[in-house]
Recover the amino acids of this structure.
């Protein structure tokens, strides 16, 4: 007697947010699936605002409807929302709906002793070295570097080519702009905005916006 064993279908994956960041995650996730790093079927996007006509068609995807449809879908979710505060709000709204899928592009380098929370996103050419702790729904954009002994809080966004040197602390919901550099041992609070290209040489308090070289608080 021959027994035919069925192979479980790969999970459906839905990206929440069809803006630019969400579409970049579609590319990263497609690359990861293509490289055999993870199994899944990219079902499409949900967003309360319908995307521009043809925008998703050109990347081979579809808009599934507003976020309300997620209650009817059996899918893992990727939060494709760039702004930390908005991402945190959507995560709270969707608590208990679907799994939380990590996105790690095949070119990402992750060293030993690195722990990442659910919903972790690392786009192309990210490097995370050693003894690093990363919270939930942290998004590391292209060419980001996170050095040794760093702690990165929940819902943090590091924009392209941002650098955290060794032993840096970053609080929850903070955004670090493109090309910004945080020097070794610096602590950055929660809900902080670090401008693009800034060089952060000193600790930054909660709720502060800093810009420039060296980074200074905006008045």
């Amino acid at each position: 007697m021959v027994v035919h064993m069925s192979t479980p279908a790969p999970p459906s994956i839905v990206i929440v947010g069809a803006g630019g960041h969400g579409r970049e995650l579609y590319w990263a996730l497609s690359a990861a699936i293509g490289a055999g790093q993870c199994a899944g079927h990219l079902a499409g996007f949900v967003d309360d605002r319908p995307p521009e006509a043809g925008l998703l068609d050109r990347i081979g995807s579809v808009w599934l409807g507003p976020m309300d449809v997620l209650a009817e879908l059996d899918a893992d979710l990727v939060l494709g929302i760039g702004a930390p505060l908005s991402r945190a709000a959507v995560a709270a709204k969707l608590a208990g709906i679907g799994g939380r899928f990590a996105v790690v592009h095949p070119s990402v380098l992750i060293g030993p002793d690195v722990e990442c929370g659910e919903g972790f996103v690392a786009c192309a050419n990210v490097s995370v070295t050693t003894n690093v702790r990363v919270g939930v729904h942290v998004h590391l954009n292209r060419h980001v570097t996170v050095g040794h002994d760093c702690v990165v809080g929940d819902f943090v966004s590091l924009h392209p080519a941002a650098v955290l040197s060794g032993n840096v602390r970053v609080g929850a919901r903070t955004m670090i702009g493109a090309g910004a550099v945080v020097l070794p041992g610096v602590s950055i609070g929660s809900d902080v905005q670090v401008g693009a290209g800034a060089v952060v040489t000193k600790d930054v308090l909660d709720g502060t916006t800093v810009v420039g070289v060296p980074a200074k608080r905006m008045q």
Q: What stands out?
A: Residues 103 and 121 are 5 Å apart (CA to CA).
